[in-house]
Protein 1
Amino acid sequence: MRPLRVLVTGAPGMLATALRERLGREHLTAMTSRRDLDITDSAAVRAMLSAFRPDTVINCAAMSNVDACERDPETARRINGEAPGLLAALCAEHDAELIHISTDYVFEGTKGAPYVEDDPVQPVNHYGESKLRGEEAVASAVARHKILRVSMLYGVARTNFADFVASCIEQGKPVKAVIDNAGSPTHCPDIAEQIAALLGRPETGIFHCAGLGGCSRLEFAEHIRALWPAPGLVIEPVRQADFPHMLAKRPENTSLECRRLREAGILRIKPWRDALADYLADRGRRARGPH
Ligand SMILES: NC(=O)c1ccc[n+]([C@@H]2O[C@H](COP(=O)([O-])OP(=O)(O)OC[C@H]3O[C@@H](n4cnc5c(N)ncnc54)[C@H](OP(=O)(O)O)[C@@H]3O)[C@@H](O)[C@H]2O)c1
């Protein structure tokens, strides 16, 4: 495949960081932070697309803090709901493909089995609502789009739940982990690998793109404890209601099944337990530093 011109928004976020590492090896990649390119600013987006002339735009920019979206739904709607539509319309004008990142939180979480791409959506908080608006805006504005729903991300760019649990083990602190919020934990480099495999392919529409299988936060913490070289973590199972400071209600179980990727024969995502083992091994190597 010839190298593509790929524009990524939302650097230095967690997913964009993994994309820089993976796509930068094969493609001409322009990474843009909010300061370089605010996706709510249509003039700035137009100028960037005219100057860089991307084959593909990957939109990782988002207001991703679920409680912040609950506190300020207007801003969430602007960044997560409206701006992706604007980006999509300008991609259509410039004949660029748009890969837009969405979320498992478009679902209500009560299905009792992993969600597939065409299951009915019903967000339970403002974050999910705003991201759903973003999906709809993208789908109606540009024919050449792929919407990737991801879930429970972790990666090196910022502290995440895996790091939190690992640091509690290191410091001998107990962890409270909820049993009534489950998803499909996804290592960002796996999504980057999946996107590399999707670039240039003709399929359009929604794809679930998340760690294979699913678990609650409690099971996730328990698996980190099981992988840890020395025993010692105390995990206290709790419920969301035990965290009254959390503004947004989280859906109970939004595990995703990557049905379309599997059926197309291009699934690159690992089972969540294997990916978590990779991440913790890598974290250990980073902590020890170069020899
Ligand atoms: N993290 C998860 O567990 C999770 C789960 C499901 C879906 N997702 C989705 O996956 C995608 C990537 O998530 P992530 O965790 O990598 O996000 P992240 O680490 O929070 O990074 C998002 C980036 O977007 C930037 N941004 C915010 N508003 C912007 C704007 N108006 N213009 C340009 N950039 C802007 C942020 O900059 P500032 O720091 O300046 O705000 C940040 O650098 C998002 O679409 C998110 O909704 C994430």
Note: The pocket of NAP is lined by residues 9-10, 12-15, 34, 38-40, 60-64, 79, 101, 103, 131, 150-153, 158 (CB under 6 Å).
Protein 2
Amino acid sequence: MDLGLTGRVVLVTGGSRGLGKAMATAMAAEGARVAICARDEGSLAQTAEEISGTGATVLPVVADVTSAEDRGRLMAEVGDRLGSVEVLVNNVGGNRRGAICDTTDEDWQAIIDLNLMSHMQLARSVVPAMRERGRGVILFTTSIYGREYGGPGMSIYHTTKAAVIGLAKALALELAPDGIRVNSIAPGSIRFPGGSWDKKCQADPEAMAAFVKAEIPMGRFGAAEEIGDVVAFLASDRASWITGACLNVDGGQSRSLI
Ligand SMILES: NC(=O)c1ccc[n+]([C@@H]2O[C@H](COP(=O)([O-])OP(=O)(O)OC[C@H]3O[C@@H](n4cnc5c(N)ncnc54)[C@H](OP(=O)(O)O)[C@@H]3O)[C@@H](O)[C@H]2O)c1
């Protein structure tokens, strides 16, 4: 199936490793011109080199998406080098674990800025050009733990990931008349080398084998490429009737009925 992404200008935040790297790789393989950003220059450059080795156009931009100055520079550089963003994938995300009463305002603010505010701010900044063109796609990476409880210590993650689902839905309804589609994806537990699940597997393989058996009906962790492929589809015109959705990609891991 030709996804029709050839030549499209795509920006994936947090594209240097893990899910973001797989998303950028999948869309580059479909002919998109892909910009990726992250804070660490070395890993960003290495990923850009890997993807461009396949013949794709890749623009790495070192930027911290929680900094207004960096976001401005990022959008300017992508605009100058590739053109205005036609597909934005807000993918950065993180957590500060702890019981609510043990967390500080600073913990909350840092993750709200990373998981929610930066997503909203970047989304807002791409809308004018998308409106002018009469089309565009904005995607957000949330989590199954934005839809249901995932265990103790996850309160900041739960709150911000649930908020992103709400943000995506509201934005989808606001922008539908402009031909701009907005969706979120909710991955389950995805293992890739050096990622958080990989580290847990290295540290305690038996506990992780028990976790997989109990929690993931398909009996294994997801792979980053399985997220990348779904994002490439949602970014494409093949998903033209999908907007305002939150799509679980989790091997059956989530338990929510809605
Ligand atoms: N892995 C999973 O099982 C899983 C499951 C559900 C949802 N998710 C969500 O999927 C997304 C990606 O997860 P992942 O596991 O691939 O994460 P990851 O391995 O921690 O990678 C995060 C990416 O974001 C970049 N990044 C972090 N903070 C940034 C900032 N302030 N500005 C710019 N870039 C920043 C990182 O590079 P630098 O550190 O160099 O900046 C890296 O490229 C997150 O939103 C996460 O919550 C992951």
Note: The two ends are 30 Å apart (CA to CA).
